[in-house]
Structures are given as C-alpha cells and as structure tokens.
Amino acid sequence: MALSLEIQKVFTEISERVKSVDLHPIEPWILTSLYSGTVCILNYQSQAIVKTFKVTDSPVRSAKFVARKNWVVAASDDKFIRVYNYDTMEKVAEFEAHTDFIRFVVVHPTLPYLLSSSDDKLIKVWDWEKGWICTKVFEEHQHYVMQVAFNPVEVNTFASASLDGTIKVWNLESPAPIFTLEGHSKGVNSVDYFINGDKLYLLSGSDDYTVKVCNPACNSAFLIRMCVSNVLIRPLTNPVYTQNRQVWDYETRSCVQTLEGHEHNVTAVCVHPEFPIIITCSEDQTIRLWNANTYGLESKLNYGLERVWAVGCIRGSNQAVFGCDKGTIMVKVNSSSGLDIGDLQTKEEE
C-alpha cells in the first residue's frame, strides 16, 4: 500500500550550534545541548524556552531526558557528566566520567543505567541507584567511540559506532563484544536499531558519505567478526551498511542496499518510529528521507541552518527534531491513509 507523506515545519529556535536533541515522552519539550556549554528545554507548543542550564564552558555534545526521574543528563568535553532535576534545576550529581571528550550518552529503557562513550575509546555503564558508580567498562575500540544505542528487543545488548570504522555489538554482562561489523571505509559516527516488520536492523552513518544495506556474511567487502562468549544472542537479520549510513540486518547478516547521495559526513541516523522512513543528517547541510522498505530516496530537506548534527523522534508522535549549526528545527510528518508504503512519496511544506 502507498503512503503519502507531507513534511511541515512547526517550530524553529535560532541558537548557537546544537550538538544533540532529545524529545520528552510526555511533555511537549525538546532538550538541546549546545557547543557553547548550555542545555535548553524548549516547548514546541508554546514556542518558548522552558529552562536553560549553563552546564560548563566546554561543548555539551550529548544530553538526555530521564523522564522517570525528572532529570536531564548532560555530557561534555570537560569529561564530566552532570545530572539536573528539570523541575527544580537542582544539580543532582556531577562526576568525572572519562579522560577525554564525552561523545554520547544513552539511558537504559528499564534499568537505572546510563551508558557513555568517549574519545578515550571507552564505553562505561553508570548505575544511579548505586550512587552513579561505574559498574562496567567496554574497551575494544581503537578510536573515538562516537555513539551507542540499546537494542529495543534484547535490551541488555547494545551497539557502538567508532571512528575506527567498526560497529560492535555488546552484552551488558560481558566485557568482550559479541561481534564486530566492518565495512565502512572511514569512521562511523552514528548507529541505531530499528524494526521493520518482524526483522531487526542496524543503521549506521559514516564519514564515507554513503548508506549500505548489507549482509556481511555474504559479501567479501563486509566482515563480521564473531567473539566467543557465554552469552547467546541472535545475529543481525538484514544488516544495512552505510558509508554515510549503513543498515544491518540483525538476523541474516546480509547486505541489502547501498544508499548514496550525501556529499559530506553523515552525522546522525534513525528510522521514524511511526513511518517507514530512514532519516539521515549530514555536514552537507541536508536531511534526507529514505524509504525503509525500498531504500529509495524520497526527499531532501535543507532548512538553511547549515550543518545538521542530530535527530530525535519518539514513538507515538509524528514529529522529528533536528539540531544544526544555527539552531533547532522540528517538523511534523503527516500521512494519507490507504496508500502503498512501497510507493512512498514525500513533499516539503514551507
């Protein structure tokens, strides 16, 4: 069936460079972290700034809501993680987490864990119920670890993307990776899981400008290194490799498609939770929408905010938010019913 999509711009906030964005699961809030060291909560309904936290003089590269605790977690180039109560603006915790810039943090969906990744090549697990102690360290990467993402099906496994050109899949209970995906010709900036039908995929974005959907097990250009472990997990079904973005099938480990088009580094990737759309962002200043079923390019968006660094979506919402050099923009995706998803069409509405 066909699905017709219309992209509407609903909110813009001009600011200094935005390095990360997150959406609150209940409130109409966008969390942005700025290169200037500030974290902001924006209300996209009232078009107003709700709260502003001056975290540090260093860039804050990643910030996340912890909605079940009413917290904001911010990670910065000064190597510290800071936690704030977003109702009272009280600082809940502050600790030096790494020995180099912190690139990314992600919150476990059910457990009291925060995962952080850094230019020190390490991934760490922090347990806030134990006073924010570090309970695990993962250290197989050979270059900066740019991003981490939890598996939505097996929530005790996660994937990491590194400038060493690899994606590694880990289990929280083992210090060694379960397997390593190789195939990008340059560093990997971003990684995310998505489910399409009954299959689990990995999506990755790289400095080599392209997107690939592959099965590394069937293609000599791609390699999966399996690691011996006492943990049993399912492999990828339809891995997609991307030079800018890659989609990996989590079960069959097969290469499906290469997505080409970006003209600079791919900085962020995700699949919209409500639509079969792969969203990719790049330093070429564009946002591209790809059909998650056919892998065809559906739309190329440029809102004039220069380089695009981050994307955020949440289940149950038809919105997507982007962080750019010159601010934040939120768009709304509207769809017509009764059309074929395989014949996906999009248009931008100014």
UniProtKB/TrEMBL annotation:
GO-annotated cellular components: COPI vesicle coat
Subcellular compartments: Cytoplasmic vesicle membrane
WD repeats: 95-127, 138-180, 259-294
Entry keyword annotation includes Repeat: yes
Annotated keywords: Cytoplasmic vesicle, Repeat, WD repeat
SUPFAM superfamilies in UniProt: WD40 repeat-like (SSF50978)
GO BP terms in the entry: endoplasmic reticulum to Golgi vesicle-mediated transport; intra-Golgi vesicle-mediated transport; intracellular protein transport; retrograde vesicle-mediated transport, Golgi to endoplasmic reticulum
Family annotation (Pfam families): WD40
Domain of life: Eukaryota
InterPro entries with a match to the protein in the record: Coatomer_complex_subunit, WD40/YVTN_repeat-like_dom_sf, WD40_PAC1, WD40_repeat_CS, WD40_repeat_dom_sf, WD40_rpt
Main function: The coatomer is a cytosolic protein complex that binds to dilysine motifs and reversibly associates with Golgi non-clathrin-coated vesicles, which further mediate biosynthetic protein transport from the ER, via the Golgi up to the trans Golgi network. Coatomer complex is required for budding from Golgi membranes, and is essential for the retrograde Golgi-to-ER transport of dilysine-tagged proteins.
Protein name: Beta'-coat protein
Species this chain originates from: Tripterygium wilfordii (Thunder God vine)
UniProt lineage: Eukaryota, Viridiplantae, Streptophyta, Embryophyta, Tracheophyta
